[in-house]
Every structure is written in structure tokens, then in C-alpha cells.
Design a protein that fits this description.
Number of strands: 12
Low-confidence stretches: none
Number of helices: 11
Mean pLDDT: 96
Largest sheet: 5 strands, mixed
Structural class: alpha/beta
Bound molecules: pyridoxal-5'-phosphate
Radius of gyration: 21 Å
CATH topology of the largest domain: Aspartate Aminotransferase, domain 2
CATH class of the largest domain: Alpha Beta
Strand content: 5-15%
CATH architecture of the largest domain: 3-Layer(aba) Sandwich
Helix content: 25-40%
Order of helices and strands: HEHHEHEHEEHEEEHHHEEHEEH
Number of domains: 2
């Protein structure tokens, strides 16, 4: 606290990201990174974008990220003016909150969801209401009838549960006079995307990221897809805030990642296969595991407290995410790792829940 702070800063309650441990040797399953490296074409493109001796860095990047917007538009079957790119989907979402979701009616989102949403609401002075998920953490679209802005992740985080494209269409239609933002940070791991609905729904904005699907969390590239007037709102905000959110290296690396569809598909398939194995393995140990279409699973053990389980895993060099929050206190969010990482998690979990070490002692 300082007397030099503005009233806004004094009132903020900033988002707390998952730990990025400095210690090596940990099995890191806490922030939903892709366990596989990005396409080798990414590093090559970044080297090329540097120019000889890094000389290209002298010059500002393309403020419109035109090549990247075109590559995304081609992949999604949209026009480049239906694409907005930003510094990670967190930045894109922040623009959507400020530029679209601040309306005369309160913004609605699930009670259990991405915890950045209330932070942005407070930052931008947006009134909000949380809509309870069902007992099984299922999202019921009918709970969002009545008209008003909506934001939700599909699949939801941290539950991993997804709704169908038909349900997304119902949600957009039921709130046709209000912006509806679908946060598809995890959609590439098996859920149905809302992108095919963009043509018929002028109120629909879909937000994506390359952080998880394309293993580029460190490069910070996110994007939004929607009809041109919605995208224009985000462009107007960006150009009133920072004209160059994506540097030269990020633009070049992202384009290369998007062009290597087969690399992306192989890693995605591997993550999805590991997710099923991990879910089965946890269930066999007595965990309750929600059906996930994301690159993480949400699980709890009836005989163990969530925080204590996370701590016991940490003592065995495995980091998972625990949220000390209403309704989800008993649960752990576990990122799907490589088969070896998942095996290490299962071995440690077995030790903890059975009270036996690996040799049955
Ligand atoms: C639901 C959801 N949306 C958006 C993001 C932001 O991702 P990024 O800023 O890396 O694109 C995350 C990150 O964990 C997330 O869980």
C-alpha cells in the first residue's frame, strides 16, 4: 500500500497464477502446459525472424500481425478481419471484458470457473453474477436464459467438463442481444468448438490460445474469432493501449506452429490418450474423476483432504494445482503429462492413498 496508488489499484484483487517452480527435477502438472515441445519449425522460424545477428529486432513488429491473422483465419475457415490476436488469451479476454462484456446487465459466468474472470470484472468495474454448476459440476445452458452478457470456458476450467455445440448455439440464441464469449483455451483436446456458429451469431466471440494446444505458453499468443464488428472493438482497445502486443518472434513462431498441423495433431492425440489412462489409473486408486475433454483432469479422493494430498504429492516432487475455494476444496486439478509423468503421479498417489511405498512396505 502506498499513498501514491490510485483508488483503483488499492481495490484490486489480482489473479494468482499457478506456481512456476525454480527447482529442477519436479514433475510439473500444475499449469496445464503441453508436456511435448512445439514443432521444430517454431524455433527455426524464430531464428529466421531474428535476422542476421538479431538485426531484425531493431524494427517494430507488424502492429496488425497480418500474416498470423491470415494463418489463423485459414485454419478456421474465416476471413482475416474476423481474427484478433493478443499477448496470450488472457490479454484477449481482458479486452473482451472491457470492450464487450461491460454492459448494462450483470455479466454471468459459472460459480466454479477460471478465476481470472472476477479479477477482470473488478478491474473494469463490471457487475457480475455467478451461476451455480450442477452437483456434478455440469453446466446447464438453461440457467443462462433471460438475456445478458455471458462468458464461460468450454471445456470449463478447472473441471474439464464440456458442453456440446448444440448447447453453445442455444446459449448464443438465448442471449442474442448480448455478447457471449466462449473461452476455448482447452477446446483442441476433444471438445466441440463454437467457431462454426460464428457466421450465424453476431454476438458470439470465441477466444483461443496456442499456450496449451501448440505448446507455446512461453511465447504468449492468444486470439479471438468473431464477426468483424466484435473484432473491431478489440482492435480499437488494443490501439488505445499498446499497438504491438505481439513481438516479431511471437508472430513468426505462432505462424510456424499453426502450419505444422501434423505435429500439433500427434501431440494432441498423445495427450488425449494419456488423459484416459490417467483417469482410469486414478479411478482404480479410489479417486472420483470428472469426465474431462481438456488437457487436465479434476479428481478427489474420498479419504483424503485436497490440500493435504497436494502437499503429499509435492513432497514426492510432483506439483499439481489445488484451489482453496468453496465447492472445490477437496479436488485437485492435474495436468495430463507424458506417459512417464502420469505414471510417476499415479505411483506417488498410490503410495499416499494406500499408505504403502512402491514395494508394498
Ligand atoms: C480457461 C482459461 N482461459 C485462458 C487462459 C489463459 O491462457 P493464455 O493466457 O496462456 O493464453 C487459461 C490459462 O490457464 C485458462 O485456463
Amino acid at each position: 500500500m502506498s499513498r501514491f496508488w490510485s483508488a483503483l489499484v488499492a481495490d484490486l484483487s489480482p489473479y494468482v497464477p499457478g506456481e512456476q517452480p525454480r527447482l529442477g527435477g519436479l514433475v510439473k502438472l500444475n499449469t496445464n502446459e503441453n508436456p511435448y515441445p512445439p514443432s521444430p519449425a517454431v524455433a527455426e522460424a524464430i531464428r529466421a525472424a531474428l535476422g542476421a545477428d538479431g538485426g531484425a529486432l531493431r524494427l517494430y513488429p507488424d502492429p496488425q500481425s497480418a500474416v498470423l491473422c491470415t494463418a489463423i483465419a485459414q485454419r478456421e475457415g474465416l476471413a482475416p478481419e474476423q481474427v484478433f490476436v493478443g499477448n496470450g488469451s488472457d490479454e484477449v479476454l481482458a479486452f473482451a471484458f472491457q470492450g464487450l462484456l461491460a454492459q448494462s446487465r450483470p455479466l454471468r459466468f459459472p460459480d466454479v470457473t477460471y478465476s481470472f474472470y472476477p479479477t477482470w470484472c473488478r478491474l473494469y468495474g463490471i457487475a457480475f453474477e455467478t451461476v451455480p454448476l450442477g452437483d456434478d459440476f455440469a453446466l446447464r445452458v438453461d440457467d443462462y436464459a433471460g438475456g445478458g452478457p455471458v462468458v464461460l470456458p468450454n471445456p470449463n476450467a478447472p473441471t474439464g467438463r464440456a458442453i456440446s455445440r448444440a448447447q453453445l448455439a442455444r446459449l448464443a440464441s438465448a442471449n442474442a442481444d448480448w455478447p457471449v464469449v466462449i473461452d476455448e483455451a482447452y477446446v483442441e483436446f476433444g471438445a466441440e468448438s463454437a467457431v462454426p456458429l460464428v457466421a450465424a451469431h453476431p454476438n458470439l466471440l470465441v477466444v483461443r490460445t496456442l499456450s496449451k494446444s501448440h505448446a507455446l505458453a512461453g511465447l504468449r499468443v492468444g486470439y479471438a474469432l468473431g464477426q468483424a464488428p466484435l473484432v473491431e472493438a478489440l482492435v480499437r482497445l488494443k490501439d488505445s493501449f499498446n499497438s504491438y502486443p505481439l513481438d516479431r518472434l511471437a508472430q513468426a513462431g505462432a505462424v510456424a506452429a499453426l502450419r505444422d498441423e501434423s505435429w500439433f495433431a500427434r501431440a494432441r492425440d498423445a495427450v488425449m490418450a494419456s488423459r484416459e489412462q490417467l483417469s482410469r489409473g486414478l479411478a482404480a486408486l479410489g479417486f472420483e474423476v470428472l469426465p474431462s475433454l481438456a488437457n487436465f483432469v479434476f479428481a478427489r479422493h474420498p479419504g483424503h483432504d485436497g490440500a493435504a494430498l497436494a502437499q503429499a504429492l509435492r513432497e514426492r516432487a510432483i506439483v499439481v494445482r489445488h484451489f482453496a475455494k468453496p465447492r472445490i476444496e477437496p479436488w485437485l486439478r492435474i495436468t495430463v503429462g507424458t506417459p512417464q509423468q502420469c505414471a510417476a503421479l499415479l505411483a506417488a498417489a498410490r503410495e499416499i492413498v494406500t499408505g504403502c511405498d512402491r514395494h508394498g512396505a
